[in-house]
Write a structure and sequence with these properties.
The protein has six helices and no strands. It is an all-alpha fold and 166 residues long. It has a domain of 98 residues: Cytochrome c-like domain (Cytochrome Bc1 Complex, Chain D, domain 2, Orthogonal Bundle). α2 crosses α6. The radius of gyration is 25 Å and the shape is elongated. The relative contact order is 0.14.
């Protein structure tokens, strides 16, 4: 009698586990039919022939095409790690108020990586563009884990937005 009860309890436990697993799988892994992506990542053509070629600022984007408003919208990605308010707090990254034409690693209240501390550059538009395009390529060893922005118009719009904070 005890053995029958033990076998019955084991079988019922297995059935309940299987049944509840298939129920939760349907709830948690159900394809809700998302039809639109949150945002599209544009990938520009990559020149693999000359990897050591220095990337220059785009010359085909005129100042009249720059959109500070679009830069403000795009900066929301940056705001996960950075603030841009005067005397604003540091987050994972330093506050970016007045960063344009400032020396690298110049915020005394932020602990920069050794690589960034040794870079010793001015954040002019050229250097900002190269860094935002590919942080780990421009400053190997940086703590900034952002993959970068490849779209030249978006890049220039963000720089236009950041540069207005002086």
């Amino acid at each position: 009698m005890k053995s029958n009860l033990l076998i019955f309890s084991t079988l019922m436990s297995c059935l309940i586990a299987i049944f509840s697993g298939s129920l939760t799988k349907g709830i948690y892994f159900f394809n809700h039919g998302v039809e639109e992506k949150a945002y599209t990542i544009k990938v520009s053509n990559i020149n693999t022939e000359n990897k050591n070629q220095k990337t220059e600022m785009p010359t085909d984007i005129s100042v009249s095409k720059l959109s500070v408003k679009n830069g403000e919208i795009l900066f929301k990605r940056c705001s996960l790690c950075h603030t841009i308010e005067k005397n604003g707090a540091n987050k994972i990254g330093p506050n970016l108020w007045g960063i344009a034409n400032k020396s690298s690693a110049s915020n005394p209240s932020f602990a920069y990586s050794m690589a960034m501390s040794k870079k010793n550059i001015q954040w002019d538009q050229q250097n900002l563009a190269q860094f935002i395009r590919s942080p780990s390529k421009f400053v190997p060893g940086t703590k900034m884990s952002f993959a970068g922005i490849k779209d030249e118009q978006e890049l220039m719009d963000i720089i236009a937005y950041i540069s207005q904070f002086k």
